[in-house]
């Protein structure tokens, strides 16, 4: 069974947003000089110039804010996801006559879609390596994988939407073939599927 990463299309025909906060960050480790960083609710976004039509899926790197029809579908399918608050902030720079989503924002309510299930990769077959290991803070960073991934069937069970354990805390989200077909049937806007790997029997 194939696995697909969900993301925005290569050619975007809708309004685009940028993630501008908020960040949670731990203290910097004196040994490895790194800190654990992850976005926290609410997802703060700024609309970019170019278009004012808001799609069903608005992407901010791997995170996405979705419209109510996506929320309804996810809940009807009982998919393991949470919906966190999304807030629109004023754009940093505005030029006259440029097209963008107006601020103050009065558009549809958007929710940050967050897949709660994690699936571990078969590290050997996915060619995952340890990139950083710190004895002091315990941090272990492994190869970020979004293609060429292999997951064992017993590690994923019946889960159809998930993030990768070794990719934590990334929001990069993956779906099975069957869920891909269901999502495609909804004709959601600004949603694309990129082949990422497979579930091994």
Describe this structure as you would to a colleague:
This protein has 201 residues and is mainly beta. Helices cover 11% and strands 38% of the residues. It has 3 helices and 14 strands. It has helices at 68-76, 153-156, 177-185, and strands at 2-7, 17-25, 37-47, 57-60, 63-66, 81-88, 111-115, 118-119, 130-133, 140-142, 149-152, 161-164, 174-176, 192-200. The strands form 3 sheets. Strands 8-12-13-1-14-11 form a 6-stranded mixed sheet. The chain has a 6-stranded mixed sheet with strand order 2-3-6-7-5-4. It has a two-stranded antiparallel sheet with strand order 9-10. A hairpin with a 6-residue loop joins strand 9 (130-133) and strand 10 (140-142). The protein is globular and about 55 Å long. The termini are close together.
